[in-house]
Design goal:
Layout lengths: L6 E5 L4 H12 L3 E6 L4 H9 L4 E5 L5 H15 L4 E4 L22 H29 L2 E5 L17 H21 L4 E5 L23 E2 L15 E2 L6 H5 L11 E4 L2 E4 L3
Parallel strand pairs: 1-2, 1-4, 2-3, 4-5, 5-6, 7-8
Antiparallel strand pairs: 9-10
Helix pairs in contact: 3-4, 4-5
Length: 268
């Protein structure tokens, strides 16, 4: 299977990882539908610059009417929806200088709800409204940004990430259940994070707010691009999401990654 000529919806596409993913699908010949609450003029121009067919649909993934409009507009233009990349989310950008989030004991309920509504509810709504179009084709791929593990040896304490991690692990559980529902319709539903930090030392100190880790993109501050900080460049993601969008049904319901150009299951 190839994504060439397919219709791919990328949420959170205005900047960062979503912007990169949209460009890689476009470079591989897909028709790309951009969705974001932020202006998408820059990335839309980049895609058109390489000759891609692009449609921008302003979308609030926490609003069901807005999400419904996204998919009905995409279908009206293209007559099909093949792949959904559920990238939109509120993330911990500590590695590029964003302030650390508060501990749960100090967190405002409104902030907790905003993160969960965007990350988890947004994933639910986009899946809900994409699925009928995929079922009509008896085919489709949904890649949710769920990640993480409960295995103690796989994680290190990172104060301020509790609600973010909760949302990502919840998305993993949601993905597993949704995969069971959609298997008979040949819709492959997977969870996949954007990548892992390089095994390089993490530098902390003056001028390096938040320490290392994470992925830097075109939208990150220039100082964050220093590879000695242990960060991964968005360029390192390469075509990973394009490759995952070609995966077989045996990967449905699983947390996956791409290693050496092939989809692999990440075990807990």
């Amino acid at each position: 299977m190839s994504v060439e000529g397919s219709v791919v919806v990328v949420t959170g596409a205005a900047a960062g990882i979503g912007r990169h993913i949209a460009k890689r699908f476009a470079a591989n010949g897909a028709n790309v539908v951009l969705a974001d609450i932020a202006p998408m003029d820059v990335v839309a121009g980049e895609l058109r610059g390489i000759g891609a067919e692009v449609l921008s649909v302003p979308t609030d993934v926490t609003n069901e009417a807005s999400v419904r409009n996204l998919f009905s507009t995409a279908f009206a233009r293209h007559g099909r929806i093949d792949t959904l990349i559920n990238n939109a989310g509120i993330v911990t950008h500590f590695h590029v200088g964003s302030p650390r989030w508060s501990r749960i004991r100090d967190m405002d309920q409104g902030f907790y709800s905003k993160v969960m509504d965007t990350n988890l509810m947004g994933t639910f709504l986009c899946c809900k409204h994409a699925i009928p179009y995929m079922e009509s084709l008896n085919a489709g791929h949904i890649i949710n940004f769920g990640q993480g593990s409960f295995r103690p040896s796989s994680r290190k304490p990172n104060i301020g990430t509790c609600v973010y991690s909760t949302s990502k692990l919840a998305i993993r559980g949601f993905t597993m259940g949704l995969a069971d529902e959609e298997r008979e319709y040949n819709v492959c539903v997977m969870s996949m994070g954007p990548g892992l930090p390089r095994p390089t030392p993490v530098v902390q100190g003056a001028g390096v707010p938040g320490g290392g880790g994470g992925i830097v993109t075109e939208d990150s501050p220039a100082w964050a691009l220093d590879p000695s900080r242990g960060t991964q460049s968005v360029a390192d993601i390469g075509d990973n999401y394009v490759i995952a969008a070609e995966a077989g049904m045996e990967f449905s319901g699983r947390q996956v990654s791409v290693r050496d150009g092939a989809v692999v299951v990440l075990e807990d």
